[in-house]
């Protein structure tokens, strides 16, 4: 009976979205991520002025040398107005990668005359159609940028590839993020059917790791991840991954100017998050009051924190392992991370603006520093309204890596912070409401009910359990809904 009811609901969804398609609305994943709603709020957020680095593996190697068949098929109709560059000059057996073509179409494709048998005619519009897409072959990128410690001068980088073990190059990526405040978004892996462990570079400490919101075999109905399709944490060293999830089953460009469902793969969830991040980056770059959010001074921490705080919790969200207490040592859900991306909520949090410690609004963010002293606290004080019920907050800082091969973690600059929420009662007494203090993660996350018309303090400090070394630069964001 339950199965029949589910089928009826799915049929209703199909009918509703088919009606939307008749109105030239692209169905599915983009809408679930809030992309179209955000575009309606600010139609200028098309990625203009944003450089997106897309790093892809070649499909063919000869004597371990990549043959540059890593490129999207830019001859397709959806790429006719796209702005794409490539790192090479067609040396070797240059060719086309179907995988890269599908990813690139999520980011920058546009086709007013698209068609899919399940949807009918629709207007295919990518997340950031006016962004400049710089496409790099993976091993060349490793050689030219990671090994040399150079920054490619892009605004955000996305990678839908990975390996199950850490390597010098994955640590080099983490180091690049810390050195340049450069947001890197990577796919976490395709569940137990592919690998058991979170893939690197997504599993890296400073990278934003993206899992997959399960589509229930439709283009429209997205829910909590299925561990068979989306790799779950923890990592081997006990850290929480993924950081966030997104829909992965998108309509993507295929050969002969047709479109197909991509399936529930993290390869396609990662560019969804990258696209939303690019919209936020465009907004921040255009507003002098927000530009610190994309600065080389740990700007990646601000973006990572905002995307995680604004994420939507799906069913069965639970810190750490399932069916356990809300353990303060595990900041995130091992399958959902902080939840599913919500473009509008992230935008609203970004434009709430920089707010220094002290009295703050109930929505905001800060980029700040804390000295290696366990007596130092950065306190963000606010009062809840009568209709505000839940606080979400995320604290992010970067791990520091050595600047030369093999880019090992610099334990001499180990930093460990904690995030505490406390309420001030009518007698002025402080009551600790929640604590997030992982001994291994460089992310802390709080999601907790709050009492209306009450004074609270969100506190960032060094963890009392681990000795921090050196001043820690951090980003924290919060919102009460």
Strand content: 25-35%
Which bin fits the share of residues in helices? Answer: 10-25%
Enumerate how many helices there are, as a single number.
9
- CATH superfamily (homologous) name of the largest domain: Peptidase S8/S53 domain
Stretches with pLDDT under 50, minimum 5 residues: 1-23
Structural class: alpha/beta
Multimeric status of the protein: single chain
Question: What does the model show?
Answer:
The protein is α/β, with parallel strands linked by helices and 481 residues long. It has nine helices and 22 strands. The chain has helices at 2-22, 29-32, 35-41, 98-108, 138-146, 168-180, 266-286, 299-309, 343-352, and strands at 51-56, 61-62, 65-66, 83-86, 110-116, 120-125, 132-137, 156-159, 183-187, 208-213, 244-247, 251-253, 259-261, 358-359, 363-370, 377-383, 390-397, 417-424, 430-436, 443-449, 455-462, 472-480. The protein has a seven-stranded parallel beta sheet. A five-stranded mixed beta sheet has the order 14-16-21-18-19, with no helix packed on it. The chain has a four-stranded antiparallel beta sheet with strand order 15-22-17-20. Helix 7 (266-286) runs parallel beside helix 9 (343-352) and helix 8 crosses helix 9. The radius of gyration is 22 Å and the shape is globular. The two termini are 36 Å apart. Mean pLDDT is 90; it is low at 1-23.
